[in-house]
């Protein structure tokens, strides 16, 4: 092993999950590594635990027996029992995780832990035969993997160049172009989320503008890496005729041909409760899926629908 590989293997980052046997994050059967940290704060985010960069305590109240064992384990006195059940002082909690082993029903969990490139590589490479047989590989997702750019680069080097695995980056591309460009030689596929074409609307719903995202999209389409644009279809945000027409124009002008629509869902709603965060969108809202397909087909795009 040369010095470069030793450095890469020792590089560490923070992840909140590694999901094996994934079927929707690229071709074949895959392992998906979820990074913590994201420059966006999308209102509909299905993984709210991915937005922050630090470890977080998740408390699933429906599993709690209110036994009080965790209360005595907390040195910061961030937990307390009342008549209506267990409460958490989120300002006092530092997500140290000392309370977690005291819960016998799995009502408490820490989201986010450090892992080295070597540790992740060792775990996902156990599934190399399944990758080989199915045409799968490893997808890095989040959060936004580019937010941990050095860790991401080292991991892609190890998985793509040394292990020979198919690698895929699931990204919103909210990063300077040189950061993204650096990753491309170590990628086989980029799944690019584009959420809205209008900068002001994008900023209102995601907390950040999209000028660099659209610039990166234009540059990516000129790269040799395989691309697939993904559109998270959100009611009253980007499923209007005006939004879809602007989207179709942008993709046709930049040369994209394939797009995958990801319809709005609320599968992550329980995570908001577990983090003590409010969910601000109507849980039962339905996006205009048929209209979106019709509009985008009119622009000559090959449209598929992501099924959860």
Structural class: alpha/beta
Whole-number tally of structural domains: 2
CATH architecture of the largest domain: Alpha-Beta Barrel
Note the gap between the termini: 41 Å
Main β-sheet: number of strands, strand sense, barrel status? 9 strands, mixed
Would you give an account of this structure?
This protein has helices at residues 3-10, 69-73, 117-124, 128-134, 149-162, 177-183, 199-206, 211-220, 241-254, 269-275, 289-298; strands at 12-22, 30-35, 56-59, 79-82, 85-88, 108-111, 113-116, 137-141, 166-171, 189-193, 226-233, 258-263, 302-305. It folds into 2 domains: 3-53 and 112-305, Aldolase class I (TIM Barrel, Alpha-Beta Barrel), CATH 3.20.20.70; 59-111, Alpha-Beta Plaits. Strands 7-1-2-8-9-10-11-12-13 form a 9-stranded mixed β-sheet. It has a two-stranded antiparallel sheet with strand order 3-6. The protein has a two-stranded antiparallel sheet with strand order 4-5. With 308 residues, it is α/β, with parallel strands linked by helices. Helix 3 packs across helix 5. The two termini are 41 Å apart. It is built from 11 helices and 13 strands.
Layout of secondary structure:
Elements lengths: L2 H8 L1 E11 L7 E6 L20 E4 L9 H5 L5 E4 L2 E4 L19 E4 L1 E4 H8 L3 H7 L2 E5 L7 H14 L3 E6 L5 H7 L5 E5 L5 H8 L4 H10 L5 E8 L7 H14 L3 E6 L5 H7 L13 H10 L3 E4 L3
Parallel strand pairs: 2-8, 8-9, 9-10, 10-11, 11-12, 12-13
Antiparallel strand pairs: 1-2, 1-7, 3-6, 4-5
Helix pairs in contact: 1-5, 3-5, 9-11
């Amino acid at each position: 092993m040369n010095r470069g590989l030793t450095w890469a293997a020792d590089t560490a980052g923070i992840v909140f999950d590694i999901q094996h046997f994934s079927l929707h994050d690229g071709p074949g059967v895959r392992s998906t590594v979820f990074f913590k940290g994201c420059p966006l704060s999308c209102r509909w985010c299905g993984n709210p635990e991915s937005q922050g960069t630090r470890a977080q305590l998740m408390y699933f109240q429906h599993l709690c027996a209110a036994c009080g064992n965790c209360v005595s384990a907390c040195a910061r006195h961030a937990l307390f029992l009342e008549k209506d059940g267990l409460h958490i002082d989120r300002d006092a909690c530092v997500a140290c995780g000392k309370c977690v082993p005291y819960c016998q029903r799995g009502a408490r969990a820490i989201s986010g832990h450090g892992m080295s490139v070597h540790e992740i590589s060792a775990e996902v490479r156990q599934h190399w035969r399944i990758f080989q047989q199915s045409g799968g590989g490893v997808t890095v997702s989040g959060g936004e993997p580019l937010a941990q750019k050095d860790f991401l680069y080292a991991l892609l080097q190890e998985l793509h160049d040394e292990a020979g695995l198919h690698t895929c980056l699931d990204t919103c591309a909210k990063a300077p172009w040189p950061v993204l460009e650096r990753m491309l030689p170590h990628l086989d596929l980029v799944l690019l989320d584009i959420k809205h074409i209008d900068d002001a609307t994008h900023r209102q719903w995601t907390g950040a503008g999209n000028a660099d995202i659209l610039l990166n999209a234009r540059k990516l389409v000129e790269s040799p890496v395989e691309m697939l644009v993904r559109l998270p279809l959100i009611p009253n945000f980007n499923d209007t005729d005006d939004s879809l027409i602007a989207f179709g124009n942008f993709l046709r002008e930049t040369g994209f041909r394939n797009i995958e629509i990801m319809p709005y869902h609320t599968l992550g709603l329980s995570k908001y409760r577990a983090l003590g965060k409010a969910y601000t969108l109507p849980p039962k809202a339905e996006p205009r899926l048929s209209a979106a397909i019709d509009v985008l087909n009119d622009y000559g795009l090959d449209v598929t629908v992501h099924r959860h």
